[in-house]
Amino acid sequence: MFACFYIPDFAVQAALLQEPAETRAALPASPLAILDGPASLPRVFATNMAARRAGIQAGMTKLQVETYGGVLLRKRSLAEEDSAQAALVNFAGTFSPRVESTCAGAVILDLAGMEKLLGPWPKAARNMTARAADIGFDLRIAIAANPDAAFLAARGFSANYVSRPRPGRGPQRAALACRGENFAWAGIFIPAGEEAEQLAPLAVDVLPISSQMLEILHGWGIRQFRSLAALPTVAVVERLGQEGLYLQKLARGEINRQLLTVEQNVEFVASFEFDDPVETLESLFFILNRLLHELCSKLLSAALAAQELRLSIELEIRQTVRQIQRESKEEEQYRHEWKLPVPTQDRNILLGLVRLELEKTTFSAPVRRLRLEVVPVKPRVAQENFFAPPSPEAEKLEITLERIRGVVGDADVDGAACVGSPCLVDTHRPGCFTLRHFSSISDGGGDLANSPLATAPVIALRIFRPAIETAVELDGIKPHFVRLWSRHRRVMAASGPWASSGDWWNGSAWMREEWDVALKTPAGLGFYRIYRDRIRERWFVEGVFD
Amino acid sequence: MLSKTQILRAQIEEKLPSAFAVYRRQEHGCIPTGIAQIDEAVQGVPLHALTEICGSNLASSGKTSVLTSLLAQATRDHFCALVDAGDSFDPASGQAAGIYLPRLLWVRCGKSRVKLPPLEQAFKVTDILLQSGGFGLIAVNLSGIPERVVRKVPLGSWFRFSRVIEKFPAALVFVAEDPHATSCAGLVLRVGIDAGAVPFAGNLLTQLNLKVEVVRGQGKKPVRSEKYTERTGLSLRTQWA
Question: Quick one: which H or E segment has residue B126?
Answer without folding.
Answer: helix B118-132
